[in-house]
Amino acid sequence: MIGYSYDGSFYGFLTCVFYAYAEKEDPAAVVPFGSQPLLIPMRGIPTENDKAVRVEKGLKRRSEEGYLAVRDGFLCEMPDKERRLLAFIRKLIGKGARAALSYADPDTAPLLKALISMREEGHLLKGFLRFSEHEGVLVSVISPKNQVLPILAQHFSIRLPGEKFLIYDARHKTGFIHTEERKEFVSIDSLLLPPVGKEEAAYRAMWRGYFQHIAIPERENPVCQRTHLSLRYRPWMTEFTEDEPVTMENALLPARA
């Protein structure tokens, strides 16, 4: 019995898939470096892009939908994610996309359900994410359950091609930097933003005032509000926050009503 450890990247995981097939192994665990399970001898798998690309092309040839399930499934937060993805890939290659993508299969159903949740969270954050200007840069701090930053990065790069912006995922300590010259994901352990300027503060005040004045007090329905706008998204939205320094710690505060 052996486990694989890798660098936590998608291509690192695909490299693990390559070696699992090449050496006919069924690793008992596949985990990022530094999170080694107890009592299992681990083998470090360095990322090899050429081998990862071979696996990627093979999955796409087998099924484009199946490949997208693997790619997006890697963004999900779920227990034993890599092992579930490896089992999905084995089924995709061995029995085809129809079998692998079946919710009736107890081996793949948890992954498919996690995919729905992840994609829904990414879709909602496209609307709930708010930017504030800090010294000429648009910044947004979020703390999603899943690693949806790649989805948001693609969306806002298309929507705001000429802007300088940073989206910071405080939970996963990852940021996406976008400028005309630079578009990349970076690791950020913590983030302390400078105070907003007067113009940004005025825009925030106007937006809060608009939000408050369009409400009809006689028709206020908190239950309905929570159905359409979950409490956990509100700490990141201007409408529900007060002006205060944004750090990784207060980005992770419980949602406010």
Order of helices and strands: EHEEHHHHHEEHEEEHHH
The biggest beta sheet is recorded as: 5 strands, mixed
Using the alpha-carbon principal axes, give the shape. elongated
Structural class: alpha/beta
> Number of helical segments?
10
Low-pLDDT runs of 5+ residues are 245-257
Q: How many E strands? A: 8
Helix residue percentage: 40-55%
Radius of gyration: 21 Å
Strand order of the largest sheet: 4-5-6-7-8
* Terminal residue distance: 49 Å
Please indicate the percent range of residues in DSSP E strands (runs of 2 or more).
Answer: 5-15%
Mean pLDDT: 89
Provide the descriptors you would attach to this structure in a database record.
single chain; 257 residues; alpha/beta; 5-stranded mixed beta sheet; 3-stranded parallel beta sheet; 10 helices; 44% helix; 13% strand; elongated; disordered C terminus
Task: Describe the protein's architecture and organization.
This protein is α/β, with parallel strands linked by helices and 257 residues long. The protein has ten helices and eight strands. Strands 4-5-6-7-8 form a five-stranded mixed sheet, covered by helices on one side. The chain has a three-stranded parallel sheet with strand order 2-1-3. β5 (137-142), α7 and β6 (165-169) form a beta-alpha-beta unit. α1 (10-22) crosses α2 (49-62), α2 crosses α3 (64-73) and α6 packs parallel to α7. Mean pLDDT is 89; it is low at 245-257.
Put the structure in a nutshell.
With 257 residues, the chain is α/β, with parallel strands linked by helices. The chain has helices at 10-22, 49-62, 64-73, 81-95, 97-100, 109-128, 149-159, 198-213, 222-228, 248-251, and strands spanning 3-6, 30-32, 42-44, 132-134, 137-142, 165-169, 174-178, 183-187. The strands form two sheets. A five-stranded mixed beta sheet has the order 4-5-6-7-8, with helices on one face. A three-stranded parallel beta sheet has the order 2-1-3.
